[in-house]
Design goal:
The complex is a heterodimer of chains A (224) and B (456). Chain A is an alpha/beta fold and 224 residues long. Chain A is built from eight helices and twelve strands. A five-stranded parallel beta sheet of chain A has the order 2-1-3-4-5, with helices on both faces. In chain A, strands 6-7-8-9 form a four-stranded antiparallel beta sheet, with helices on one face. A three-stranded antiparallel beta sheet of chain A has the order 10-12-11. In chain A, α6 crosses α8. In chain B, the strands form three sheets. A five-stranded antiparallel beta sheet of chain B has the order 2-1-5-4-3, sandwiched between helices. A five-stranded mixed beta sheet of chain B has the order 7-9-10-12-11, with helices on one face. Chain B has a two-stranded antiparallel ribbon with strand order 6-8. With 456 residues, chain B is α+β, with helices and mostly antiparallel strands. Chain B is rod-shaped. About 1% of the residues of chain B have low confidence. In chain B, β11 and β12 form a beta hairpin. The chains are: A alpha/beta (224), B alpha+beta (456). At the A-B interface, α4, β5, α5, β9 and α6 of A face α7, α8, β7 and α9 of B. β9 of chain A pairs antiparallel with β7 of chain B, so a sheet runs across the interface. Chain B: One of its GO terms (cellular component) is plasma membrane. Chain B: It is found in: Cell membrane. Chain B: InterPro entries: HAMP_dom, HATPase_C_sf, HATPase_dom, His_kinase_dom, HisK_dim/P_dom, HisK_dim/P_sf, HssS/ArlS-like, Sig_transdc_His_kin-like_C. Chain B: It comes from Peribacillus psychrosaccharolyticus (Bacillus psychrosaccharolyticus). Chain B: It is a multi-pass membrane protein.
């Protein structure tokens, strides 16, 4: 199970963060100060820390620095003020991401997921098709044109197709691999995503084309 | 003390002090150089008179001496016992007997040269027997000592009057001139002071008719410019405070009303959820507003000189990765095309610019659309284009997009979180960096924002 260290001197905020994380299925260790956080991390293995910036004693920046350099622990900083200097200091301290309070729980969960995903890809995981390079770690597609950032589902579709170029993949397979077996929607959802992806590729990497194979599914091809 | 009195005092003191300085300087000069020359000149005259008198008869000598007396010399002749004067008395006729005896013995007396220097007396005018030249003469075989000097009073009387009149005239006219000049100088200052006092009580339309090309004219011009600017900034501030109060007041009001609704009995679960969502939204809006107000305040307060080198492409990339959640939510695709570009600027402020512009693009995009970001450079500037396929804006909305608290779609605002400050902040930051920002937009087609910043 993934264990997350939540650090905040504001108990209400701490409870809120912990509750949201627990509901999403993570194990949460709650502490109310930087000092306590350093004690706990000595005895327990953590996968991620969510740290508030404004704390008495060891503040969020300091704690982040220690956690990053000594424990190699990814950190999400919570800043109360939308203060530009804090933002910069947060980057300096080496946090992996930051969130400005007040935030919605789904944003927190999204960022937690994104960071964990990044940390599970220790090496660069690259797929190449035509002029396109697909980075499975950062979820970006690159070409000589620049960088293309697509929504997650589209990215997963693209990587799935690109991992087997020129092979026709059925919509059922795509639904199973990307949305999961429990998916409630129909094949139309796949069509919508494929169409969007196709349009984006048309502009960004015209040599890479997604071809509809009537009655079967889709395949990806490199066109000269 | 008023400026008038100061002017008069100043003029008076200047005249007095300069006269004194001039007097002492001339006195020193007289004693140092002129005294000797004057002595020699008179000695030459005395010698030729002596030569003439020595050669002539006593009757003729008498006549000559009388004539010289009338012609403007003061003569004092003595044989040691009796004294004869021609051309009037000396004011002070004390003289050492030893000197008279020496002259009688044939020596010359250089009294003008040896006349002692006194601080407040000009030796030139001293009507004293000591201040003469003396020679010995022989009349009828009898030795006499003859002392002489020009009769200044007789010779220069009219000149005295002339110069005296001139001096009085100069002084009087100077005072009158000074008063006129003072008046000319002081009048605009009085006007300016009155206008300034009025400005203290927030009346900005006191007419100021000062049309001058000098320093005071410039002061008046500067004053008018400054007054206009202050007036504008006070108006802006009032409007700002008004807007802020309204923008804080109205969500608070909404929150209050919906809380009241929530507390009523018999509210269905569905309604509860709906009301909570509205409250949530209003709180988010207020929070965003206060955050941006903080940014504005810190931006106004700090003297934020653009000084560091900033890799803007890197910044945009970071911003994109931070905002990924937001465009993920709307299933937007973003393509980012750029080269490595650095500008001189203030990194956190520029970051605010990218964040605001990208947040806007995301906010006004329809789900599933694309946003294209392109960053290029010319030899002297960086060009960033952010193109969305969003709701777009009308020409009127584009025109007011950068006004503080202007929100394009008043009716739709409720569903789109916005403080109305974002673009105003962006514009101020870009202008601080001497750049430009332009919006081109077509309703229902999309909006392109172009930012240009000068390179290093």
């Amino acid at each position: 199970m993934i264990r997350i260290l939540a650090v905040d001197d504001d108990v209400h905020m701490l409870n809120f963060v912990a509750a949201e994380l627990r509901q999403a299925g993570y194990e949460v260790v709650q502490v109310t100060s930087g000092e306590e956080a350093l004690l706990r991390i000595e005895s327990e293995t953590m996968n991620l820390a969510v740290v508030d910036v404004m704390m008495p004693g060891i503040d969020g920046f300091e704690l982040t620095q220690i956690l990053r350099t000594e424990y190699d622990l990814p950190v999400i900083l919570l800043t109360a003020r939308h203060h530009i200097e804090d933002k910069e200091r947060g980057f300096l301290a080496g946090s992996d991401d930051y969130l400005v309070k007040p935030f919605e729980s789904k944003e927190l969960l999204y960022r937690v997921k994104a960071i964990l995903r990044r940390y599970n890809h220790p090496e660069n995981d690259l797929l190449t098709i035509g002029s396109l390079t697909i980075d499975l770690k950062s979820y970006e597609a690159r070409s000589t044109n620049g960088t293309l950032l697509t929504p997650l589902k589209e990215f997963e579709l693209l990587s799935l197709l690109a991992s087997q170029p020129n092979q026709v993949l059925s919509r059922d397979l795509m639904i199973e691999r990307i949305w999961g077996i429990d998916f409630q929607g129909d094949e139309q959802t796949v069509n919508v995503h494929i169409n969007r992806l196709r349009q984006r590729l048309e502009r960004f990497a015209p040599d890479v084309q997604i071809i509809t194979v009537r009655g079967v599914g889709y395949k990806i091809e490199v066109v000269r | 003390m008023s400026l008038y009195v100061k002017f008069i005092w100043f003029t008076f003191t200047t005249m007095l002090v300069s006269s004194l300085i001039a007097f002492f300087a001339m006195n020193i000069y007289y004693h140092q150089y002129l005294k000797g020359e004057n002595n020699d000149k008179n000695m030459t005259i005395a010698s030729s008179i002596a030569d003439f008198l020595n050669e002539t008869t006593s009757a003729r000598a008498e006549e000559t001496l009388a004539l010289l007396g009338e012609a403007g010399y003061q003569l004092y002749m003595t044989d040691g016992e009796t004294v004869r004067r021609f051309g009037g008395h000396y004011r002070d006729e004390t003289m050492d007997d030893a000197v008279i005896r020496q002259v009688l013995d044939g020596k010359v007396y250089n009294g003008i040269r040896d006349f002692p220097r006194e601080t407040f007396v000009t030796g030139f005018f001293a009507n004293e027997l000591k201040n003469t030249v003396g020679v010995s003469i022989v009349i009828d075989g009898e030795r006499h000592a003859l002392f002489l000097r020009p009769n200044i009073k007789l010779l220069l009387q009219e000149l005295h009057l002339l110069f005296g009149g001139l001096a009085v005239g100069i002084i009087l006219l100077s005072f009158i001139g000074m008063l006129i000049v003072a008046r000319l100088l002081i009048l605009p200052i009085i006007k300016l002071t009155e206008a300034t006092e009025k400005m203290g009580s927030e009346s900005f339309n006191v007419p100021l008719s000062i049309d001058r090309k000098d320093e005071i004219g410039r002061l008046a011009d500067q004053f008018l410019t400054m007054r206009a600017r202050i007036e504008r900034s006070i108006l802006k501030r009032k409007e700002f405070v008004h807007n802020v109060s309204h923008d804080i007041q109205s969500p608070l009001h909404t929150i209050q009303s919906y809380l009241t609704l929530l507390q009523k009995e018999g509210v269905s679960e569905n309604e509860k959820e709906q009301y909570s969502a509205i409250i949530q939204e209003e709180i988010t809006r207020m929070s965003l507003l206060t955050n941006q107000l903080l940014t504005l305040a810190s931006f106004d307060a700090e003297a934020t000189d653009p000084v560091e080198e900033v890799y803007v492409d890197q910044q945009v990339r970071e911003t994109l990765s931070h905002l990924r959640f937001a465009f993920e939510e709307k299933e937007l695709g973003i393509s980012f095309i750029s080269e490595s570009i650095k500008v001189r600027g203030n990194a956190p402020l520029l970051q605010t610019v990218w964040e605001n512009l990208l947040t806007n693009a995301i906010k006004y995009s329809e789900p599933g659309c694309s946003i294209e970001i392109q960053m290029t450079s010319t030899p002297d500037s960086m060009i960033l284009n952010i193109q969305d396929e969003g709701v777009g804006m009308s020409p009127h909305e584009v025109k007011h997009a950068f006004d503080r608290f202007y929100r394009a779609d008043q009716a739709r605002t409720r569903s789109l979180k916005g403080s109305g400050l974002g673009l105003a902040i962006v514009k101020e930051i870009i202008e601080l960096h001497k750049g430009t920002i332009e919006i081109t937009s077509t309703p229902a087609i999309g909006t392109t924002v172009q930012v240009k910043l000068p390179l290093l």
